[in-house]
Each structure stands twice: as structure tokens, then as C-alpha cells.
Design brief:
The chain is α+β, with helices and mostly antiparallel strands and about 450 residues long. Helices cover about 30% and strands about 30% of the residues. Strands 3, 7, 8, 9, 10, 11, 12, 13 and 16 form a 9-stranded mixed β-sheet that branches. It has a 5-stranded mixed β-sheet with strand order 20-19-21-22-23, with helices on both faces. The structure holds 5'-O-(N-(L-cysteinyl)-sulfamoyl)adenosine.
Amino acid sequence: MRVSRSFLPTLRETPAEAQIVSHRYMLRAGLVRQQAAGIYSWLPLGHRVLRKIEQIVREEQDRAGAIELLMPTLQAADLWRESGRYDAYGKEMLRIKDRHERDLLYGPTNEEMITEIFRSAVRSYKDMPRILYHIQWKFRDEIRPRFGVMRGREFLMKDSYSFDLDAAGARHSYNKMFVAYLRTFARMGLKAVPMKADTGPIGGDLSHEFIVLADTGESQVYCHKDLVDMAVPENVDFDGDLEPYIKQRTSLYAATDEKHDAEAFAKIPADKQLAARGIEVGHIFYFGTKYSKPMNAKVTNQSGEDVLVEMGSYGIGVSRLMGAIIEASHDDAGIIWPESVAPYRVGLISLKADDPKTRQVCEDLYQKLSAAGVEVLYDDTDERAGAKFSTFDLIGLPWQVLVGPRGLANNQVEIKNRKTGERQHLAPEAALNLFTRRA
Ligand code: 5CA
């Protein structure tokens, strides 16, 4: 993408309403624009990051055996009357009437709808177990939307739902999502710790929140320090026994405020106690027959008996993750994107757009990098170099390639690593090789 043809509305001033660094940088780097309290447009750069986060979530869901579908944002109130949650959900639910005066709602979550889909299609143990998921916008009329996309009213969620014949099967599905989540967050450069959590309006009695530690987080959490840097499971057989992965973590103390047990926490050696703030990026629930019972979702088991399906649900805050990643990875100059979610991998910066040689080398690098599949944002404008440096530091692409007449006099371009600040001076062909030769 050429900056001269792009839509990158960055801001020089720090918007007064933004209290935390991720919100400030998201507005300043032109990732999002607020349209109403807790409701955002995703501008081109932010949209690219959102799609990348979504894709990592999708790949790890698929790897764990979950199946993607897509449900609508609007739901019929009658469905929620079946489970009893239409009245129970309260003011957080956005209720709408259509032209026929029928009650609709903008989905805050999808347990009812997925249970309806499942019960209408599956009758037999032969089609079990299954985990279904979608990545779809949700609306919750939060009383205090804040911190930008962290606590929005409209937000993007990945929500999965598992269907099993019995409690043991449901536990295995829960474990699958538990392990998939560890991998998902690690791929985004995040250290997310699973912690015992409250179930709130979703219900059930087994639940973990996945928490990214950050001083600006909304949750107060307590855990054993060793959980923070624990290695992420690799080469997992999702059909095999997953309990060891789970036990390795749940045998150490970790709980959110609501589930905190001060006595148990005090038993952790003092130097391993961690009381901190954190961001909830995921939340998983096992709630058995809470929805299948009122909604009469039954299947025939191997013995020919009709049994209620055992269910769980598993959420990831896809849009919230963008804020969490920035909270975890930034400096005073701006965002530092991990390569896996960066909107572009390389920023190619022309230091003198009207110099013919500079232009020629930039154009050549841009063509060749693009042809090799490297995502490049090429600043071909005649803006002064200093302004370009600060914009590129702000938007945080992992690599900058600086091309100008002074370097080219020695046949060199400069490569800057945004994270380490390291600079290398290379011939243009060597710079090209650096990015096109990929493991
Ligand atoms: N049905 C279950 C699991 S699919 C559910 O809705 N769980 S939840 O309420 O915990 O939400 C799942 C995830 O969505 C949370 O862990 C959080 O990361 C994200 N989330 C929840 N509310 C918001 C919000 N207001 N703004 C941004 N993200 C949110």
C-alpha cells in the first residue's frame, strides 16, 4: 500500500478522553474512530489488525476441532423466553421492536440460538460430540463503556459452544478449548494466565478467565508467579488426554477477585505471590444442562435413552485483544506490533520523494517485496522525514526500511527494528533478501 493512496488518518494531539495508553494509541494511529459511546468504526489499519487477530483465533479453534458457522446479530426474543434469560438479562440487553411489533434483541451472547440450531439438527449420539463457533459482533449496553475497545458496547467476540453426551465428554471439550486458548494468546505475543472465575449471567459452576497482566486492567487477580511464564503446549493431540496440561496449571493458585481465597493464596511462598491487575481476554464455561433442559435439547445415547446434552461455552474478546496487545507492547513513541498481528510487516520510507535515485530504489523494493508476498506500507509522499519517522514509530510496524540519497551514495539503505531499535545498513538487494527469505 502506498501512503499517497491510503486512508491513514493519524492524529498529532492526544485525545483528551483517552485514559489508557492503548486507547490513546488506537486513536492517534488511526486504528479506530468512536461513533457513539462504546461504538467504534474500524479504520483501514485497525481493520487489518482485527482480521489478523481473528484469523489466529480461527486457526486455533479449527486445530482443536471446532467448526465455524455464522449466526446473526439480531435474535428473536422468544428464543430467550425459552431459557428464561429474556427477563433475567436486564438492561445490558439491547431490545428492539420490528415493524410488526415483534420483540427482537441484539445478541449479547448466543447460547439460546446455538442450542436451537443443535436440537433441530442432531438426534443421535452418532453426531456427537461437536464444538461449533462463530466470530460475530455482540452488543451489551454496558453501564460504563470505557478504555476504548476494552469495554465497548458493540464488540467482536469469538464464541464457541460444545455439545456432549455426558459430563466426562463435556469436560474433554472444556479442556480442548482451555489448551486452544493458551496457544491462541501466545501466538499474539501475550502471556495469558487461566484463573478460576465467576460465571455471571452465563451460568454453570466451572469457569476460567484468561487474564493478561496489565496495570490498566479492569480485573484484580491473584496467582502463583510461575503461571505467567509457563511454556505453551506444542504438538497437542486434541483427541488424547489433555488433563496433564490442565493440571499443570490448575494445581497452582490462580483466581480472579470474585473467586479469591486469601487463605489459600497465603500458602504460596511469599516470593511467588502475585497480586496484580489484568485484562480478561477470554472466558470459558461448563454449565451442563442449564440451556438444554429448558430448551429440551435431547439426543439418543448408545443405550437408546434420550438424554439432555451437556454444554459449555467459550468466549474470546477479539476486539478487546487489540487493546490488550497494545497495552503489552508499546513504548513512548507508539505501538510495537508483534509480527503475527502487525497491519504491515515492513514500512518502506522514502526520505526524499523528489530525488530520482531514491524514488527508483523505493519503487523497486516496493515492487519486489510485494511480489514476494511481504506486506509493505510504502511512504512515497513528500512529507518531511522527521514527520514520517514519528508516524511510523507510532503505527508500530515491526520493520522500517529508510531510503535516502545519503545512504544510496554508498549503495545502502537503513533497516530499523521497531522493537529493539537496532539499525542495520545494507545494500538494497540484501535488504530485500532479509524480508523475502523466510523460514
Ligand atoms: N457466552 C460466553 C462465552 S462464549 C460469554 O459471553 N462470555 S463472556 O461474557 O465472558 O464474554 C467473552 C469475552 O468477550 C470476554 O472474556 C471478554 O474478553 C469479551 N468481552 C465481554 N464484554 C466485553 C465488552 N463490553 N467489550 C469488549 N469485550 C468484551
